[in-house]
Amino acid sequence: MTDATAMLTTNDGQPLKAALARSQRRARRNALLLVAPLFLFVLITFVIPIGQMLSQSVYNNNFSVAAPNLGAWFDDHPQGSEIDETAFAALVADLQYMKEEKLSGSAGTRINYDISGSRSLFTGSARKVDDLTPPYAISVPALDEKWTDPNLWRAMRSASSPLTGDFYLAALDLTRDEAGVIVQVEPRQRVYKMLFGRTLMLSALITGICLVLAFPIAHLLATLPLAKSNLLMILVLLPFWTSLLVRTTSWIVLLQQQGVVNSLLVSLGIIGDDGRIQMIYNQMGTIIAMTHILLPFMVLPLYSVMRPIPPSYVRAARSLGASSWTAFRRIYLPQTVPGMAAGALLVFILSVGYYITPALVGGADGQLISNLIAFHMQKSLNWSLAAALAGLLLFGVLVLYWLYDKLVGIDNLKLG
Amino acid sequence: MKTTLILTTALVGAGFAAAAQEVNVVSWGGAYSVSQVEAYNKPFTEKTGIKVNMIDADNPASPLKAQVEAGNITGDVFDIEVSDAIRLCDEGALVEINPDDLPPAPDGTPAKDDFVPGALRECAVANIVWGTVIAYDTTKFPDGQPTLAADFFNLEKFPGKRGLPKNAKRTLYLALIADGVPAGEIYEKLATPEGVAQAFAKLDTIKDSVVWWEAGAQPPQLLADGEVTMATVYNGRIFDAIVSEGKPFDVIWDGQYMDLDMFAIPKGSPNPEAAMEYLKFATDTQRLADQAMYISYGPSRKSSAALVGMYKDGKTAMAPHMPTNPANIVNAVLDDPEFWADHDVELNEQFNAWLAN
User: Fold this and answer.
1) What is the ipTM metric for this complex?
2) Which one of A164, A206, A394, B335 has the fewest CB atoms closer than 10 angstroms to its CB?
3) Cβ(B52)–Cβ(B45) below 8 Å
4) Quick one: B208 and B344 in the same domain?
5) What is the pLDDT of residue B311?
6) How confident is the model at residue A6 (pLDDT cuts 50, 70, 90)?
7) Is residue B15 very low, low, confident or very high in pLDDT (cuts 50, 70, 90)?
8) What is the CATH number of the domain that holds B225?
């Protein structure tokens, strides 16, 4: 048998096995070439920028490139060493370098993330560095006594290595004390953990509301005759095609205190003119506007799953004696699980990263973590912290995705 | 990125290569640039024969940084914010300006005493002052109008929601002013934890009644919608709402927050002499006063205030609308970019935490 196989050849005498392998290789290569544009596109526009951004969360060399001498001093002197003349001499050499290279601003900004007020300490001291004379352990503190603060030296030590976990600590409301031990920041500065919690909670709530609202609509769409359901479908899709900003500002017009809904309630006598309800610029505004905006993402997967479910299944269950509730619960509902799962996953992940709607209608208590990420990207320009916050958010979503896969199974996902 | 920058700056530069007697001014565009063309550029060309090319940018500091980075400076004078002026000066990119070179006021007051505090920097000279002020809807308080920053925090006497910007810089000072801290001591206070706590405690008294805004266009809209009865606004915007749109709003100048816009000249600009001539001319007493005819931003010289005339509509006297009007700066806080460079992070962190809890 083995001999017979070995002797199988193609017409031109090549072994069949080799010819087959070659032609398969060619097919594989062609397939690869076909996906190459997409692969490159995703790599260039998605993987690389996001990777670069995330790397900023653990890598910040603004201080380390500006302070090579201090970096060397910290390497030779472990945490807890006395800040002596050699340390101040290294500091003065670095300030000199910063002045020449115009680096004092960026180096000071890096330390300022940790210790407020140190940006001007660096720029001011660098400007006057030429006036300093040895012994520096006396002249530098005489210039500004902040230089003797052990916490400042702790921050400089930490920043002198470009690889740092400081930003992840900050993103979890943690910091280091003078001895380098991780502690919580002061209560008046704690904000991120609470916002992570709120973001997850509100996202879950919005997902739940979307599911409850979308299920009957999708069912109606799936069971109505095609002409009518198409019309309904347009009503679902129309807001989907409308600009997000237009929809959000429409909600402002509707819900504000002098808005349509409140005025209607007042004119109907349900509430008094001075009892107008605050429905926007708070958490409620965020929930209402986001639910509306994300609803189509729930309706569409549900609809696509419900449409092919034959009505005869439920009828068969009913004819076998099941009550309408039992038939729904045991026959219809289980078949819609893939749609529910897909919709819930879509809505949840979209709302975890939602930014513009809470910014516009969220007021104070309707802000989500993404609003602070945007704040650090655009206003405070602390990109490393923004990257750390985004990294944590991404990690959280991946954990939830993994949990979801364990509980529901990703194979059960059906988007349409 | 860098090559594109070089390419664009080179292309822009090519346009100005020829004539010797000209100066390229980069400014913010819109009504603001128009006011500068009318008040500075036309009379400058008339007087000196030097042609002025007005170039618009969203923020002139961006092309300035790009040109410095690319080593190909094509603009001569840039209209930039104070924080950018200071930073670029720190980085050695700007020409230093000696205040003694600037023309004195008509009465002989030297320039360094004539400009408002903070208007003369190492490498830049302010041309305008703009203010963040409290505006209110006059129809909402028939029993007496608010007049002080403290009234902003008095919800009993002046009921209704308040509009405030969602950041530390433009809220904390107002709380301290309303709490009786003199304008001159605001930054001293804000540098201490007690002062910050005092500001937040004052803000706590109205926290539930605040509608937070993010863009400058929002507060006039919130007032017009009746959503708030008082809000802090940029004075140019509210002037527009009052004078051009005829809205029943009025302004409280007590506790206004003043920011400056500055002229700066980059090192290595193509026409350095003409640029310095232009800068001196544009920041003289008469020119700064003339600009106010076209836009409600204040001249940065004290001596200009008396010369400020009518708005271009010919019937609105501009002086009372100027952030620099003597009556309007009695209790004004001047922006301090150095303070904010140091404390922005810490105060905004606390502000965000305060807001979210």
Assistant:
1) 0.78
2) A394
3) yes
4) yes
5) 85
6) low
7) very low
8) 3.40.190.10
Q: How confident is the model at residue B16 (pLDDT cuts 50, 70, 90)?
A: very low
The residue among A378 and A243 whose pLDDT is bigger is: A243
Question: Which range of residues forms the domain containing residue A17?
Answer: 2-56
Averaged pLDDT, A312-321: 92
Interchain CB contact of A306 with B (< 8 Å):
no
Interface test with B, best of A119, A174, A186, A202 (most B CBs within 10 A): A119
Contact B210 A372 (CB under 8 A): no
Q: Do A258 and B343 touch (CB under 8 A)?
A: no
Residue A342 near residue A297, CB atoms below 8 Å: no
The verdict on A98 and A153 lying in the same domain is yes
Q: Are A151 and A112 in contact (CB under 8 A)?
A: no
The pLDDT value given to residue A90 = 93
Burial class (CB in 10 A: 0-12, 13-18, 19+), A396: middle
Question: From CA A318, how far away is CA A315, in angstroms rounded?
Answer: 5
A152-177 as b/e: b if 16+ CB within 10 A? bbbbbbbbbeeebebbbbbbbbbbbe
Interchain CB contact of A120 with B (< 8 Å): yes
User: Taking the alpha carbons of A353, A356, A358, A364 in that order, is the dihedral positive or negative?
Assistant: positive
3-state secondary structure of A97: helix
Q: Both tokens of residue A34?
A: 């076909």
CB contact under 8 A, B353 and A188: yes
Q: Which residue of chain A comes nearest to B350, CA vs CA?
A: A189
CA distance A375 to B248: 34
Helix count and strand count (H, E) for chain A: 21, 2
The mean pLDDT value of chain B amounts to 87
Say whether A189 and B349 touch across the interface (CB within 8 A): yes
Instruction: Name chain B contacts of A365, Cβ cutoff 8 Å.
Output: 356
> Would you state the pLDDT for residue B97?
92
Instruction: Please give the backbone phi and psi of residue B78, each rounded to the nearest 5 degrees, phi first.
Output: -120, 135
Based on the domain organization, do B153 and B248 belong to the same domain?
A: yes
At B17 the pLDDT is 43
